[in-house]
Amino acid sequence: MDGVVVFDLFGVIARTQTPQAKWRIEQLAGVSGEVFWDAYWACRPAYDAGQPSEEYWRAVANSLGTRFENVEALVSADLASAVEEIAVTAFAAAAERARHLDDLEDQLFRFGRVVMSAPELRTVLSNLTIPAQYKRQLLDTLLEGKVTADARQLIDEAAEHPRGRSVDVTLDHYAQWTAQWRQRLIAVARVALPLTDRQRERLIAALEGAYGHEVHLDVIVDPRVEGGISVQIGDEFIDGSVASRLAALRRRLAA
Questions:
Q1: Among residues of the chain, what percentage have pLDDT more than 90?
Q2: Which letter, b or e, does each residue of 51-84 get, where b requires 16 or more Cβ atoms within 10 Å of its Cβ?
Q3: The CATH number of domain 185-254 is 1.10.4160
Q4: Contacts of 3 (CB under 8 A, 6+ apart)
Q5: pLDDT tens across 141-184, in order?
Q6: I want to staple 14 with a disulfide (CB 3.0 to 4.6 A). Which of 55, 84, 188, 237 is the partner?
């Protein structure tokens, strides 16, 4: 793996989004705190997919009910996020050459979901005041021998330098960026019971036919689905679960 190049990207450039750099972005925007960063990240997927900078910052401003006076300065101050994506893409390229890109994507996705479902773990790993050494020791306990070296390095990076995001959100971004390396879409399917290999193949084929792109499928077994399947792909949600149909029936009966 081209570890030297990737390390330089993360160690020298991507980490320039320090608290001071974030403060600078907030000052330029005229909005600070979680409300700003929630809007910043909510609008980010379209920007990461190629939306022009001016349109992205206009969308952020609209979601906040304000107007940014100096968009050009915001674009410059935000450069670190773009370089972060380049660093993750370098990991993806190296993983593809080593023939384990699928493992990298899966492990980022799955650990992100583990963190999201464990509030205490999410708080610890996302807390800037907790020493990096303690976080690494905790991750050693959780992940030793369970993930590839590149996945572990990205997870460490997400925990040690959250850049205003929780670790699970950062890992979602990393998984999306690794998938985009091969111009694939990530579909998240929720099912009541695990899919068979045949069912998985048929679902992937149906999604690829509908979207015209190769699709990477992540499956979450969720008993609340109660049968059927729901799929989130990009900004679209396809709900074919029994639970949703029952809920719709109850709403009709109550009307």
A1: 26
A2: beeeebbbbbbeebeeebeebeebbebbebbebb
A3: no
A4: 94
A5: 999 999 999 999 999 989 988 766 789 988 988 888 888 776 66
A6: 84
- Domain spans of the chain, in order of start: 3-180, 185-254
Tracing tokens 């205490």 back to the chain, one arrives at 120
Nearest to 235 by CA among 35, 112, 51, 104: 51
Other CB atoms within a 10 A radius of the CB of residue 165 amount to: 19
Strand-pair partners of 205: none
Distance CA 40, CA 77 (A): 13
Structure confidence at residue 14 as a pLDDT band (50, 70, 90) = very low
Percentage of the residues of the chain whose pLDDT score is greater than 70: 78
Residue bearing the bigger pLDDT, 20 or 42: 42
Kindly give the interhelix angle for 167-180 and 149-160, rounded to the nearest 10 degrees. Answer: 140
